[in-house]
UniProtKB/TrEMBL annotation:
GO biological process assignments: pentose catabolic process
Coiled coil region boundaries: none
Natural source organism: Aestuariibaculum marinum
InterPro entries documented for this protein: Aldolase_class_II_sugar_metab, Aldolase_II/adducin_N, Aldolase_II/adducin_N_sf
Listed transmembrane segments: none
Domain (Class II aldolase/adducin N-terminal): residue spans on this chain: 12-188, 232-404
Database matches in Pfam families: Aldolase_II
Protein name: Class II aldolase/adducin family protein
GO cellular component, one term: cytosol
The keyword Endoplasmic reticulum is assigned to this record: no
Length: 429
């Protein structure tokens, strides 16, 4: 997946990604480490015992090919297994190790998350290996991890420890890391409200085989100021979604109506964290901006705009607590607090596969609700202004979180029909 991250120096790449991991609560001040091996065979790695929340580029250590250490700190204590991976797998150019809570949960019960829980996760993560416990920082740990990578894995659960992931570059490794942790969270949260359902390999193959947008290209494209303004708004919301844990690098689509049925939409195969205004794709008169590939969900957005004139923005994403309902086919009753129902009303769910273009599902397009959940795939949220739509997404995710967490206390007691009617009369008429 394309990313501008690869154009930065290894030390800058590492500090940027470790900051994302830390701020998203997927590692601690002292935990986790990242490395990149460059074309010279030198390995750039995070330092030992330095605050991950305030790491600077100047803190990154370089271990030369000859073993010379360059930098003002010691390299990570886990450096031996990073080097062991590079020695055994020349196709891997970056390694991430961290202790994200959900994946650690799997490691301490000695299980591997089943990535068939979400459409694209199996493709992004690949098969998952499992390394038996060895002393952290030891050469034995490096040996057992390297043995798993030798089998062809790019993601490995470390028994009673955490996870380690490799990639063709740091962007590739981070996408795999995010997607695997999302799978783990979705399974864990789903298990608190029901029984997670997994997709078959055939269903995933059908998802992957969907053709990219076949919209014809425009001969020329104009970029008036109002169009550019919407591009910037989309980029800001995409970044905010990533920072808030409502979107990941490899999945999430945002669009805005421009004028008439013309709209702007995020592209496919571009890292969501690094989305820039030049990446956004203009769709005008049924044609796409030349040289760009819009999201595979473009047809859904296009049809929603055509058939729902009051909808001016759409977000399609996978946020972990909403996905818990998606994978368990559990009804998300947002009659938890008045504000949730006022914003969202009732949230329907459609079967997996009905969102494929060939099926042209009218429940998604014609009966367009503020929010809708697609089994094992995503949530679609619509609204007028994009910020309003983002707010609806946050409200839906917070409501889902409250229900998942509250389920351990007892049965949810929603507001009753009379109270709902009272809300309807006051706020919706």
């Amino acid at each position: 997946m394309a990313s501008k991250l690869n154009l930065e120096h290894p030390r800058d790449q590492i500090t940027k990604i470790i900051s994302r991991i830390y701020k998203r609560g997927m590692t601690t001040t002292s935990g986790g480490n990242i490395s990149i091996i460059d074309d010279n065979g030198d390995i750039w790695v995070t330092p030992s015992a330095i605050d991950k929340g305030s790491l600077k580029s100047s803190d990154i250590i370089c271990v030369r090919k000859d073993g010379t250490v360059v930098g003002k700190h010691k390299p990570s204590s886990e450096f031996p297994f990073h080097k062991a991976i590079y020695d055994i797998r020349p196709d891997i150019k970056s390694v991430i190790h961290a202790h994200p809570p959900a994946l650690v949960s799997f490691s301490i019960v000695r299980q591997i998350p089943n990535t068939n829980i979400i459409s694209q996760a199996k493709h992004v993560c690949g098969p998952i290996g499992y390394a038996p416990y060895e002393l952290p920082g030891s050469h034995k740990l490096g040996d057992v991890i390297a043995e798993e990578f030798k089998k062809g894995f790019k993601a490995v659960i470390m028994e009673n420890h955490g996870t380690v992931l490799g990639g063709s570059d740091l962007n590739d490794a981070f996408e795999r890391f995010e997607a695997l942790e999302l799978c783990a969270r979705t399974i864990l949260y789903g298990s608190q409200i029901g029984t997670p359902n997994y997709l078959t390999d055939n269903q995933i193959e059908q998802f992957e085989s969907q053709t990219q947008s076949t919209l014809p290209e425009m001969a020329t494209t104009e970029y008036p100021s109002d169009e550019v303004e919407k591009r910037l708004e989309i980029c800001n919301i995409v970044k905010r979604s990533c920072e808030q844990g409502l979107m990941i690098s490899s999945y999430g689509t945002v669009s805005m109506r421009w004028k008439g049925d013309d709209f702007l939409i995020t592209p496919t195969h571009v890292n969501r964290w690094d989305m820039a205004i030049e990446d956004i794709v203009q769709i005008k008169d049924g044609q796409r901006e030349a040289g760009k590939n819009p999201s595979r969900a473009t047809w859904i957005h296009q049809e929603i705009y055509k058939r729902n004139p009051k909808v001016n923005s759409i977000i399609m994403t996978q946020s972990p607590y909403l996905m818990a309902f998606s994978v368990t086919k559990s009804y998300l009753n947002v009659r938890t607090i008045p504000e949730s129902w006022i914003f969202l009303q009732d949230i329907p769910m459609v079967e997996y596969g009905t969102h494929f273009k060939a099926n042209n599902n009218s429940q998604i397009i014609d009966d367009c609700t503020t929010a809708l959940i697609i089994e094992n795939d995503s949530v679609i949220v619509t609204g007028d202004k994009l910020l309003q739509t983002f707010d609806y997404l946050e409200v839906a995710e917070f409501s889902a979180k409250s229900i998942v967490l509250g389920n351990s206390l007892g049965n949810m007691v929603p507001i009753n029909d009379d109270q709902v009617e009272e809300l309807r009369q006051k706020f919706l008429t």
